[in-house]
Amino acid sequence: MKVSGEVVEAAINAGYVQHVASTTSESAGATLVVKAGTTGWVQGFALFLQTAARIKIERVDVAYFLGLYWCKRVEQTIIEGVRIPQVAALCAWSSPQTKCNLSQLANGGSRGGQPAWGGGNTPPPGPQPVTSVNGLADGTLLTTTDTGRVYKMVGGAPIWQATCDDGICSGTSRPTTQAVINAGPATPRNASTVIDQRGRIFLFVGGAPIWQDSCAAPVSCGSPVKVSNWSVDARDHMNEVPADGHLVQAKAGTVDLPVAVTIGGALVTFASPQEIIDAGYGTDWAGRVVAISSASYNHLGFIPPDGTLVQGTSGGTSTPVAAIVGGARINFASPQEVIDAGHGTNWASKVRAVPTRHFNLMPTVPSDGTLIQGSVGSTPVAAIIGTARVNFATPQEVIDAGFGTDWASKVRAIPARAFNDVPTQIIDGTRIKNGTSTSQAAVVGGAKVPFTSMEELEGAGYGDRPLWTVPSRVWDALPVKIADGTRIRKAGSTSQAAIVGDAKVPFTSMEELEGAGYGNAPLSVVPARVWDALSNDIKDGTRIQEAGAASQAAIVGGAKVPFTSMEELEGAGYADKPLYLLPPRVWDALSTRIADGTRLKDAGSASQAAVVGGARVDFVSEQEVIDAGYNGKPMQVIPNRVWKALPTRIADGTRLKDAGSASQAAVVGGARVDFVSEQEVIDAGYNGKVMQVIPNRVWKALPTQIADGTYVKSPGSASVWLINGGRKTAAQQSSNVQVIPTRVLDAIPSS
Predict the structure, then answer these.
(1) Which of 21, 140, 167, 637 has a 20 to 30 A CA-CA distance from 75?
(2) Cα separations (Å) of 596 from 520, 593, 612, 675, 701?
(3) Where are stretches of biased composition, namely Gly residues (predicted)?
(4) Where are the beta strands (DSSP E) in 387-428?
(5) 7 neighbors 52 (Cβ within 8 angstroms)
(6) Residue 655: closest CA among 636, 642, 638, 674
(7) Is there a contact between 162 and 95 (Cβ–Cβ < 8 Å)?
(8) Measured between alpha carbons, how far is residue 687 from residues 64, 136, 226 in Å?
(9) Rg of the chain in Å (alpha carbons)
(10) Any residues with CB less than 8 A from the CB of 748 and at least 6 apart, and which?
(11) pLDDT in tens, 471-506
């Protein structure tokens, strides 16, 4: 820059300057030496003399006139203010936000101790170089001369600043080198505090900045050091989460929260001072506890990350070593299991002591969505869905279930023994989807209850629940019968019921529900369509008890067969069966007549029988059982007392078939009345009745003469006949009239 000017009298008269001078000023030849490979910013800085000057300008103008070009010399004089540099300097910085100031000018720019470019007297020496950060006070500002970075001391550690805005770099900076910075502590000490440009205060625990929403006692925020937002966000000279083994405590209102230790960035709480000592923190542990706010305490969480190794310790004894997988502890049975699971041969150094109480309270099944596999590939990959293990058969199944093409990186290795111990029944209330299809269902009582529409799904309250995809082959294999003992509610209604013996047993009041022991049972909502389709008949073999009483019974052939003693119950084989309570109203309404076609066994012997027409029809051999078609039916054991009390006369109106032939008959007046054709069966109205097969021996032994007092009629006729002594007499009767083939009626002689 070259400036020429003459001070004019008018400027003096106007008061701009106090003296007249004629001067020429040229820029000083300031040269800044920059080390190769250094990135930074340079800013010029100068002090100027403000004055007024007459500036004489000479120029040549060119004009075009009458077809000719004309050149003319022009002189012009102007008067204007000018700034004449007196002292100049160059400032070098590592950040573009930094500004030069007078103190740096006097110090020769940012390079302390260097004479100011442009001449002048030598300034006083700058701050002494720092050769070790140890012992430097919080807030001390450091500038690395080789990398051009600005650091600020916090709790003994230098923290890199990305900007000097908001007064972050106020004060005198001391020169140092990057090597000195790198040799210093890696993180600030516990209880140190900083405040960023957003006004957020962070308190350090285990080298990590923990945001404090409040500095109210017992939290002590002290005088936080001002740092840049970037310093905290980038975690420069900070840990992402607290290092293991640091003790903290908080106060929620007037309640002291438990002392806790940081493990894997999370908190493990102690219930007593002895637990802290047993975990290895010494009798002087209280002096190392850092107070933090209750919000930050809870925000740290209480579940260590996957791969954390823990061991319970109490009173000098220890639990097995375990790994955290999906929030659960997976115990190891041997050192080799720890190594096989990928924790290395130095695994012992990674184990963290926790109270035995806490260890035992940890879940043993990983959280839903965790991928697991037996160590060294000893099992299939599986997902935890509804606290159950769902195995995958192929990589594509894993991808289809929503775990991505990078699923392999998410798999956690556990011992094959532990893998096989994970339950395989999906818990009730889990919402599942069938592979790549759109079909969805809820698991209720261990069974798959499909939804036919989104309206059904939302009406049953599953709209906001997580959706887990299971392979189609797993979907197809799920049971469809809701397990006994499940408490259900009809969607869109207040109606509730229990599943007992595959049947829906509704409750008419909360008193009934609680009396039957279902007050604390989980409640699963099923679509109205599913509710209505449930059976009302309790299946055979179910052990029941009247709520509020000691009475117990078994359901046999749809009937209630009471036990009069525990000996009877045990003798019938019901001692190990689950017991389901029924409201007295339901108990009293149960039938006491065992249904036809039920296969029975006497608890007091090897005898078997079938119930036919309400009567006990005994089998005398296994072949008879087979011939009558009862070998495939479940055998219901009843007390000997009940066995003996069963009638042996087959009820009238029963349709029979001979096990040894195709012959059919009806029981009429205790006698066997044979049909000789299917038409006779139809005409007599027996085609809609269930055909009960009886042994040929029993068939032959049935009487063929209709008992006295029986009223009969032929198909299509209104005439009624009374049978007495093997003869018929015309009678007037409208009820309890048995229809027999015309052929049979005609063969009975009249009185």
Answers:
(1) 21
(2) 38, 9, 5, 21, 20
(3) 109-121
(4) 388-391, 411-414
(5) yes
(6) 674
(7) yes
(8) 129, 105, 96
(9) 48
(10) 706, 721, 723, 726, 727, 728
(11) 999 999 999 999 999 999 999 999 999 999 999 999
